[in-house]
Amino acid sequence: MTTQIPTQTTQAVPETSVPVQSNKPDWVVKGPVIRGQQSRLEQIGVAWNRQDDGIGLRLTGTQIIDGDIYLYPITATNEG
Fold first, then answer.
1. Rounded to two decimals, what is the model's pTM?
2. Bridge partners of 49?
């Protein structure tokens, strides 16, 4: 009786728009959240500057965006 050794399978890694040189995002992405008559901005993702002058956006969660979204630069005093 021979024992078969399981073979490793390699999975393709999807290409991302995040630049390789930095994992730290350049932007905080916020969207309005309305509860009753009050409205506030809530973080819904992050974004990175791209070498082709674009912005790579990564949203978090499963929210439905109904309206505007805003990008704020991340600074030393504003870490998100």
1. 0.58
2. 55
